[in-house]
Amino acid sequence: MNRRISSFVTATTLSLGLPGCYTGVSDFLAGDGDAPGSTSGGPERTSDADDGPGEPSECDGVSRLPRVIRGLNGQQYARTIEAVFPGIGPVEALFRDADRSAEFSTSSQIRRLDFKNTGDVIKAAEAVSGEVVGSVKQRFTCLESAPPDHDCISSTIETLSGELYRNPAPADHRAGLVDLFEEAQAAADTDRAIELVVRAMLTSPRFLFRQELGQPRDDGTGSDLTAHEVASALAYTLTDAPPDAELRAAAEADALHTPAQIEAHARRLLAAQGVDQAGMIAFVRELTGVRNYAQVFKDEAQFPEFDAATQQAVLADFEATVGALLGSDDPTLDRLLNGSEFIVSPASARLLGWDDPDQYAAEAGLIEVDELGRRGLLTHPAMMGTYSHEAETNPVARGHFVSSKLLCQVVPAPPPDVTFPDRDEVGVNETLRQTLERVHSVNACASCHQYMDPYGWPFEVFDAVGRRRDDDRGLPIDDTSTIIVPDEFEGEVNDVTEMLDILAASTLVHECVGDGAFKYVAGVGYELEGYACITDELTAPFVSDGDVASQFVRLLTSPWFLERRVEQ
Question: Could you say which of 35, 64, 260, 535 is the most buried, measured as most Cβ atoms within 10 Å of its Cβ?
Answer without folding.
Answer: 535
